[in-house]
Amino acid sequence: MTEAQEIALTPAAAARVAAIATRQGKAPILRLSVEGGGCAGFQYRFGLADGIEADDRSTSQDGVTLVVDEISLDLVRGSAVDFVESLGGAAFQVTNPNAASGCGCGTSFSV
Q: Model-level pTM?
């Protein structure tokens, strides 16, 4: 990950976003945001975005764009967004070097 690329999207995550966007007839833009709450203090939120906002940072992988607002970026800088399939199900997952701890659900963290 280069200095200019503050967050990364893996090929597996890009492929999943592209499939979802195609099925819903939307642009392949995934928004990652961080909200207060969850069992560890903060939680990740994912959703398809209609566009890129003025204060967003973005990165692209295989024709898919990942956008993060400036405030959320402070909490996820240096992270990678992946799509993981396991016996427990399939989900987007954030590998966040800033998280001091997480929880069993994998969507909540603290700094």
A: 0.83
